[in-house]
Amino acid sequence: MTTRSRSLLRAAALIVTATIGLSACSAPEPAPEPEKPVRTSLTVGVVGALTSFNAATAQGATPANRAVSSLLDERLGSLDGDLQVVPNNGMGRITRVEGDPLTVSYELFPDRTWSDGTAVSLDDLLFGWAVSSHFFDDATYDAQGQVVSGTRYFQTATAADPNARTERPTLNRAKDTLTLVYDEPFADWNRQWMLDRPVHVIAEKAGVTVQQLITAILTTPEGDPSAPVAPNPVLAAAAAAWNTGFDAPAGGVPDAASAIAAGPWKVSGVTADALTLERRDDYQGAHYPGLTGLTVRFFPDRATQLAAMTAGEIDIANVGDLDAEQLKALTDAEVQVTTGPTTQTLQLRFADGTPADLREAVSLSLDRDALVKELLQEVRPEARPLQSFLSSPATGQLYTDLTSGNNAPATSADPDAARSALEDRAAVLRVAYDSTDDLSSAVFTKLVTMGAKAGIAVRAATAEEEPDATLSWVGEDESLYRSARDRLAEGVDGPDAQRTFRKLTTDTDPVDVLAGAKEIDRALFTAYAGVPLFERTGAVAVGKGVQGVAYTSEPEGVPPSFWTWSVTTP
Length: 570
Prior knowledge:
Blueprint: H1 3-25, E1 41-47, H2 63-72, E2 77-79, E3 85-87, E4 92-99, E5 102-108, H3 122-133, E6 140-141, E7 147-149, E8 170-172, E9 177-181, H4 199-206, H5 210-219, H6 233-244, E10 265-270, E11 274-279, E12 293-299, H7 302-310, E13 316-318, H8 324-332, E14 336-350, H9 356-365, H10 368-375, H11 397-402, H12 415-421, E15 427-432, H13 438-453, E16 456-460, E17 469-475, H14 480-489, H15 497-504, H16 510-526, E18 530-542, E19 546-547, E20 566-567
Parallel strand pairs: 1-12, 1-13, 15-16, 15-17
Antiparallel strand pairs: 2-3, 4-5, 5-9, 6-7, 8-9, 10-11, 11-12, 13-18, 14-17, 14-18, 19-20
């Protein structure tokens, strides 16, 4: 081997040795980071304070309390995002047994329990009937609605429907059924879900036994306002417990121990700012959630709720009527926002004394397409002019069926036809409206411009004047029957509307109710009773990774079907 070859071999050996040394000094490959566990709990943001675990009382029926109730309280039915009845086939069933007399059966499935482990029973349904029916009341009221004689036991947020009177229920404990026979046919029989506060909790709070309370419900005579009697002491004690026994003390929060519920959640903690729910492993119904827990956070106003949603502090929120800037802030924060119609509708309503030709002319002068395009479509592009007095697109297919053939007018303006209706006479329309409401104020400004093109001077009615028309926000009910009743009671009327409604009260088939509602709409449009304009926009906001959340048309409601919610992000 030559000297040069030996030198090359030594050099190669040195390079290999250096490489091995460098390899020995290198840091080892880092271990892979463990995957973060996927969350199984979500946070819902609600505006308002939790003041009661009974959202059915006059003082407890606040948006925040109703939101909590929608999560906790399970009944024999619920409303979907379009406000249509969905039977709860995991709890039991409601069956129309006969149409004349209207006879309805309530069946409970076995093994359904309250969150404290007590069985849900017919006694609970019977107590719910006692609360909602006001069967035992013998009170007389003054013009302001105050009791002047007799007794009103349960201070419910809504008065008893005069068309929902029934005989005292009969119980078949062998078949776990309760049967109601109505005095007259009642269109909303499938919306009477009965289940209320647990009867065993009420009895404990009232200082009586369940048996004493059930006996009182089954034996106390029906109330007669013309002959009031001393209140039944057991019913009075139960009513007092129901009326206030679930409310928060002054400056405090409701007692978590009183939040006994039939749904799949139980309360694990409550503060002034938040309510914590955990899943019940013993729940046997159809609404078992995939999540193991929920937190409901309470915000003092919409602005702080929106800020928390934008910052990612909450996962789900009904954020109400957004403007374009608020919508952009949410979408820029990668929040998914679904906008849609709500149940709050704006209508121009004519006073009884407004001349027929002026009613017709104003109706023809309104360009409702332009109103909706300018005021709604930037946030909700699919918005269209409202075409019914009784319903809105918030009710989905029901609204579509109702507005097919209800004689709704054209949505564009016809100034020439408006002038012809007035025979080219000048006219004045005095309008009352809420100047603090942005949409009402914007509509009034447009009315002035549109009216001028038809020779109608639109101006604001003074406090001393009787207005010719009023811009009214109407809180639509989820039921066509109730909407018709409420609209007529509020003064939207026509020569045939009351007659048609009297017939509607005898209809128990949804097809007949829809047909009657169409007739009422036609009567109101024919009489130029007013002009439906549009509905307020709603919005549901959902954070990143959250799935299964549906839109709700209730302006302040929690999105429905929490048992479909899930989350895929850590």
